[in-house]
């Protein structure tokens, strides 16, 4: 799996988990969803994504997100 797909999948999992936790525990979990969205937005313009850097160091291959 490419780095791009890993990052997209991880973001999706975090958003879904945050939404579930906001319903089950506290509405404040929605701040995590906002953080993920803001990080994805800035990464689209700057190309800087901390998760992509970590995944690359762990050995995932670079590639196209939807090839």
Backbone structural class: mainly alpha
Biggest pleated-sheet summary: none
Shape: elongated
Number of strands: 0
Oligomer: single chain
Strand content: under 5%
Total separate domains: 1
Counting H and I runs of at least 4 residues, what is the number of helices?
3
Q: What does the radius of gyration come to? A: 13 Å
Spans of 5+ residues with little confidence (pLDDT < 50)?
none
Description:
The chain is mostly helical and 67 residues long. The chain has one domain. It is built from three helices and no strands. The chain has helices at residues 3-24, 30-46, 50-57. Helix 1 runs antiparallel to helix 2 and helix 1 (3-24) packs across helix 3 (50-57). The radius of gyration is 13 Å and the shape is elongated. 4% of the residues are buried. The mean pLDDT is 90.
């Amino acid at each position: 799996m490419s780095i791009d797909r890993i990052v997209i999948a991880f973001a999706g999992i975090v958003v879904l988990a945050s939404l579930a936790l906001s319903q089950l525990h506290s509405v404040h979990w929605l701040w995590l969803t906002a953080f993920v969205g803001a990080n994805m937005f800035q990464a689209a313009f700057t190309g800087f994504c901390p998760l992509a850097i970590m995944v690359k160091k762990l050995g995932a291959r670079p590639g196209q997100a939807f090839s």
